């Protein structure tokens, strides 16, 4: 278990209340090594996601992953150019999909919320395993649907790059400037007792 802050995280992030370092150590780098992720490590991420909570235990999340060059090249056309410039070096790409219809045949209002929770579990296990992840909203869901044969009733949510962190210097200059853990707004701006106050 990772029980200390990573050096780059320690410089950028500080928790106001005591939490496990894994929550701050998880961030979204763009520089990846080409090293393959072993099966036992990769599938531990999906195993962690499997145990995420979901409304009525519907487990609406689905994952399509690509790690061969052939499969990754199938992903590239639906990923935005601004993301492709760095994510093509990642050894694994994952598309998160949510099933929109529940077991009773009605719309599952929580499908995206629950799929997001599963992604969070996956990301934390990746951090624990010494991997980095970066979720991307910059992709064409309809193109992904077409390329990967995703039927109606399932909604593409995000593409995730997975792998081992590379050197910042491997990125172009503009991305190098962004290659650091982001901060977060204060709890007082996001947590409200009793009633909500927009800020």
From TrEMBL:
InterPro entries attached to this UniProt entry: Nitroreductase, Nitroreductase-like
Span of domain Nitroreductase: 25-83, 86-164
Protein name: Nitroreductase family protein
Coiled coil: none
Keyword presence, Oxidoreductase: yes
One Pfam family, short name: Nitroreductase
Family label: Belongs to the nitroreductase family.
Keywords for the protein's UniProt record, in alphabetical order: Oxidoreductase
SUPFAM superfamilies in the cross-refs: FMN-dependent nitroreductase-like
Domain of life per record: Bacteria
